[in-house]
Amino acid sequence: MSLSKSKLQNDVLSVLKNMTDGDDMYFARELSAKIADYAESGMITTTDSGSISAGTFSGAGTGSIKVDSSICQGIVFAACQAMLALTAGGNALLAAQLALGVDSMMSAGTVTTTVIGTVISPVGVPSGMGGTAKGTFKGTSATLQSGFMAAFSAMDSMTSGGDEYLAGEIASAVTDYLTAGTITTNGQGSISGSVGTGSMS
Description:
Order of helices and strands: HHEEHHEEHHEE
Mean pLDDT: 95
Structural class: alpha+beta
Number of helices: 6
Low-confidence stretches: none
Distance between the termini: 9 Å
Shape: elongated
Largest sheet: 6 strands, antiparallel, barrel
Helix content: 40-55%
Number of domains: 1
Strand content: 25-35%
Radius of gyration: 20 Å
Strand order of the largest sheet: 1-2-3-4-5-6
């Protein structure tokens, strides 16, 4: 599979349309779950190489990431509760904490790829070799925060279409963050010693 920004936009819009005023837990739980599902739908590709027990390995990996939406949910819910006591600065707080929630969730996720390639033995004989690699995602939360903040600020002067606009901007910010992130993996088992680097699409 691969990322579908339009699907995330529709999913976020559904969350916004179905929430009731003051239901912070619903917002935090459902928005976090939709973003988590979206991240897990992305296709991860890597270029892998390194010295393994059988020789010098090179190959390519494909896979996905598994994340825990409750990490994001907890941070976003706490931010929503903190906003209740604010008379100003709510947009900045929510933008920063929503970005932190998504970034923390992704950083804690586990990437798993299936790697297929070739190993050159110490005597120069090539043969097919493959295995599994595991790793992590590294993103830049500032990408998220600036996108969220711009969207929240723009909504302050809107009289209609706010939900649709916000859903689109959240989907864009999250997509930009995910596709700009870096994947790093380490080979397991027979390909231990190989390292993969790549991205999500």
